[in-house]
Specification:
The chain is mostly beta strands. It has six helices and 15 strands. The protein has two domains: about 130 residues, Nucleic acid-binding proteins (OB fold (Dihydrolipoamide Acetyltransferase, E2P), Beta Barrel), CATH 2.40.50; about 160 residues, OB fold (Dihydrolipoamide Acetyltransferase, E2P), CATH 2.40.50.140. The radius of gyration is 21 Å and the shape is globular. GO terms for molecular function: single-stranded DNA binding.
Length: about 300
Amino acid sequence: SKLTNLGHLEMTWRSRVRFHPLLVRILHKSRLKYYGKPEKKMDMPYQAYFEVADGSGMMSMVLWNSLCPEWYHSMKVGTVLLLAKYAIKSSYPFKTHPTPGDSQMKRFATIEICLNVRDPPTEISIIPEEMVKPEWGLPEVKYRFITRSELDDLPHNHSCDVIGLVTFVGRAERARKREHSEDFWLYRWAHAIDGTSDQPFILELFATSQPDVFERIHPMTYLVCTQMRVMTENPSRTAYLTTSNESQIFIKGWHKGQPYTKDAKVKSFIQWMESQSEADQIKKTVIGGYYPFPRPPDSFLKY
């Protein structure tokens, strides 16, 4: 069928009601958001953001309501979609934006693609990777992996991806989303090493929309975390990483077929791991317990 592209959509969307189909690749994926309220009677008050791209640039795509439980887990980073009968709206100004792996890619920030169950009912097709043709000009997923030796030189709030061997994972803890709120964030602390420093990555991992992965993080697994934010503003000045709205977490059993397996820093980490003694690494691992961070000073006078 006749296709359009994201750049053409941005120029012509106000003058059209119906749009030609789109062929795009998912580059980023947000956590699933629940926006239900007791006074509003909605069956499926869910929403999820994606950043999708074609040869012309990148744009936000929003999955609404009952389409979320149907499609959210099938729409992975790297998935190619054919979209028809979608809607176009002005962008929501307060949403978060991931940091693109390709800094040269053009971002169309004024509008977003809306996928709805009606008005109009969107038609979504997933194109298997082996059927994707080079002439379609779809961009590859790119990452911003860093090593532990590079972390201390990065500024506060810098966005990055990391891979490491888990040496510590703490128990799941809860923090109130707001003071006096009944809603909580669920999170856990983890340490991961990559052989480039004596220090581990300190990771604050919030439960994203991947409960199966979050619950199974354990020592000696290869852990990949994408779209992490560098945090340096704490009393001990120790740099650690925390998840963002667009973070994805992967452990053993989830790596196969992920786009990051082609990344050079991921390959060099795997090579380092193959040179290590598993028995020696197991002796250094810890699981569970309370992890106070940032750590209090070692004397009361400093405190």
